[in-house]
Amino acid sequence: METVRNDGRSAEEMRPLVFHPGVAPQALASVLVSFGNTQVICAVSVEDNVPGWMKAQEVKGGWLTAEYSMLPYSTATRKKRSSNGKVDGRAVEIQRLIGRALRAVVDLEALGERTVWVDCDVLQADGGTRTASISGAAVALQMAFRRMVREGVLRSNPMRQLVSAVSVGKVGGMALLDLCYTEDSAAEVDMNVVLTERGEYVELQGSGEEATFTPEQLAQMLELAHSGALQILAAQRAALSE
User: Fold this and answer.
1) With contact defined as beta carbons under 8 Å apart, do 35 and 236 qualify?
2) Residue 131 phi/psi, 5° resolution?
3) Residue 158 φ/ψ, nearest 5 degrees
4) Largest CA-CA distance found in the chain, in angstroms, rounded
C-alpha cells in the first residue's frame, strides 16, 4: 500500500508501540502504554472481597473490573472532571469494554474471593485510547498475576492468554490501521477490534459515519486488525520478558 498518511506511515503500519512498566509504584502492577502520541497509565489493584451481587447469587470465584478516565489535560481543550460521582456515558462504555476484554482471558474462579481493579487513566489522547487501554491493561494484569503467584497469594496464574485491541477504519476510501485523532475524526468507517493472543475475537465495534462499507472492505479492515494485533502482541511479550 502507498504511504498516504500525515505522519508518513503506510496504511498497514502501527504507530510506535511502547510499554513502560512500573510507573505507579504503589499499584500491584502498572504500565504506561503509548500508541504514538496516545499515552495511558494502566494500574492493577486487588481487594480481598467480591461484589455483593456475587455473594447474593452464590457465584464462586472472584471478579475483575475496570475504570477509565481522561485527565483534564489529555486533550487540546481542557476536559472537565466528573462531578458528584457521575461518569460520562463514553467513559462508562469504554470501561465496560475494557472489563469484558480482560475477563475473556481470565479464569475468575481461580482468583478466589477477590476483586481485581484495573484503572486506565489517559495522559494524552490522540485517538485509540480504548485500544491502548486494553493492550496496556493486559500487560499490567499479567504482571500483577505473576507477582501474586510469586508471593504465594495465588497457586497459579489465572490469565489464560494475552488480549489486545486496535482500531481500523476507512478514511478517504482507504482502509487504515491504528487511526490517530485526525484520521478517526475524518473516518467514513471506524472500528475497534479486540483479539486474543490466539487470534480469536472478543469484540468488534464498528459503524459507518454517514457512509457504508462492503463485505470486502470489512474483510480488509479485519485483516489489518489481525496484522496490528500481532505487532501489539510482540511488544507486549517483549515488555513482559524484561
Assistant:
1) no
2) -70, -40
3) -80, -5
4) 57
What distance in Å separates the CA atoms of residue 167 and residue 180, rounded to the nearest whole number? 9
Three-state SS at 219: helix
In contact, 183 and 154? CB cutoff 8 Å:
no
The residue that leads in pLDDT, 151 or 71, is: 151
Where helices occur in 31-164 by DSSP H, the ranges are 52-56, 89-103, 129-150
Among 48, 42, 197, 26, which Cα is nearest to 111's? 48
**Nearest-5° angle of CA 64, CA 121, CA 78?**
145
All three cell numbers of 8, joined, read 508518513
Sheet containing 201-208, strands listed edge to edge, beginning at the edge strand earlier in sequence: 174-177, 163-171, 189-196, 201-208
Please name which of 23, 114, 24 lies closest in space to residue 62, comparing C-alpha atoms. 114
- CA dist 88 and 216 (Å) reads 35
Is residue 127 a contact partner of residue 181, using CB atoms and an 8 Å limit? yes
Domains of the chain: 17-241 (3.30.230.70)
Q: What is the pLDDT of residues 4-50, one digit of tens each?
A: 688 889 999 999 999 999 999 999 999 999 999 999 999 999 999 99
Specify the 3-state DSSP secondary structure of 95: helix
pTM: 0.94
Write down the H helix ranges in 25-128. 52-56, 89-103
Report the side by side order of strands in the sheet with 17-21. Answer: 17-21, 29-35, 38-47, 115-124, 63-70
